[in-house]
Every structure is written in C-alpha cells, then in structure tokens.
Amino acid sequence: MVEPSEDTDLLFKALADPNRRKLLDLLHQHDGRTLGELCEHMDMTRQGVTQHLDVLEAANLVATVRRGREKLHFLNPVPLQEIYERWIAKFEKPRLKALTDMKRRLEKGNG
Amino acid sequence: MVEPSEDTDLLFKALADPNRRKLLDLLHQHDGRTLGELCEHMDMTRQGVTQHLDVLEAANLVATVRRGREKLHFLNPVPLQEIYERWIAKFEKPRLKALTDMKRRLEKGNG
DNA sequence: ACACAATGCAAGTAATGACTTGCCTATTAA
DNA sequence: TTAATAGGCAAGTCATTACTTGCATTGTGT
C-alpha cells in the first residue's frame, strides 16, 4: 500500500459507492432527514443504509444529531471543496483559466 | 443496487484507490510515460500497475498510445471537470457564492 | 406501565477488489 | 537470428466490502 492521507482516502472511498452518492443527493435535496426517511428512498434494509451513512460520517460528509429517538442527518459539503482543490483545480486550473480568460475577452469584445 | 450512471461510477471507483491517484499524480507531473517508467514509482508488480491503469483507462482518465513495444500513458483531466460540475459545484455553489459575496463586500468596505 | 416506533449492535455471507505468480507475445538491437 | 526488453493474458489468493438476518436498546404517546 501507498501512504495515503487517511482523510482523503476515506473521502474518495465514501464517494465510490452509488448508494452513498444517492444519500448525499437526498440530503442535498432536503437536509436534516431521519434515518427512516432516508430508508424510504433506498432499496435495501435499514442496516444497509445505516452502514452507508456511517461511512459518509467517517468521511465527514455527513453530520448527525439525535433528537429523541430519531437521528437527523446533515450534509457537510466542505470535504468536497478539499477534493476540488487537491484533485480538480490542480489538474484543471490551466484549462479552466484558459476558458475563463477567453470568456472574459469575448464578453469584453461583444459588450 | 441503484441505477448509477455507468460513467460516473467508473470514475469514482477509479479515484477510490490511493495507488491510482498516485498514478494520476505521476502523469500530472510528467505525461506520456511508459508502463515501465510508471512501475519504477509504484511499490507493486508490473501487473498490478497495469490493472490499475486499465481501471483509469476505463474511467477515461488515462489514454494510451503504443509506440513500438512501449505503451505511453496520457492524463485526461476532462472527467474530473465533470465531477466538479456534478458533485462539487452543485453542493458548494451556494456556500462559495456566499463566501465570494462576503469577500467582495469586505474589500469594498476596507478599500 | 404498555405497545409501538426509531435506531443500534453483531455475526454471517456473497461478491468485489487488489495483488501475485507463471507463462506467452511482440518489438528492438546486436 | 537470437537475446534482451516491454508489455499482455489468465488464474489464483487474500482482504475488503456490501448487504442481510436476528435480536437488543431507547424513546414516545396513551
């Protein structure tokens, strides 16, 4: 094995599963859902969903709060920003910069 | 299983492994390397590296060209941009907008 | 107190993934 | 042409992962 930043690895591993990405989407649509509410949209047992949520929580993509017997789930988008900086911006910045520069020039020229 | 976009899934799965991310980094540093050159930096057998590169190629993150008996590997950052649009911008845009708005206000105020 | 509702815990299984070993093919250079 | 170099193929192993089933716990409303 290589020596991965543990955080980064948890993050990418968390995003690697389509069901977990679906959970993130569900929370993006509507934050603060209970486990039960999330389960209604997932085609697996409650335990399966719980385990996926645990992975998301370990990756710091989801935070939870207990309210009585319920558990509320909240999306934390900050780690995604870290992915952006480390993996998107780094690889794409030159290309993106070229695009935005061009866009600016075009707007200047046409306006 | 959920119905994932096959492309998206290949992409995230490809990024989920630290050794594959290391390969992307190596290609980012210096594009067009042969398999052998990549192997020198990876702590596993050539076949292991080949298999990782196959995954990256399936995700369209790496393109290859044969030159004689060598195989050259090139990084394709475009899919990363797609991740950005679908998974970073979507989740972070409001937050980022808030930040840049605040920044602008602060600059206006202090300048 | 009671029944029900929401969630937690733990062990088991089946599939996938990472990696290896051993051998085969193709290209280059002497 | 032959030896060395660069890479390909396929099967096998071991660990991890996704998911399940069964039971235990904790909170809520009556």
Automatic annotation (TrEMBL), chains A, B:
Record protein name field: Transcriptional regulator, ArsR family
One Pfam family here: HTH_20
Alphabetized NCBIfam families for the sequence: HTH_metalloreg
InterPro entries in the cross-refs: ArsR-like_HTH, HTH_ArsR_DNA-bd_dom, WH-like_DNA-bd_sf, WH_DNA-bd_sf
Source taxon at top rank: Bacteria
MF-aspect GO terms: DNA-binding transcription factor activity
Residue ranges annotated for the HTH arsR-type domain, each copy included: 1-95
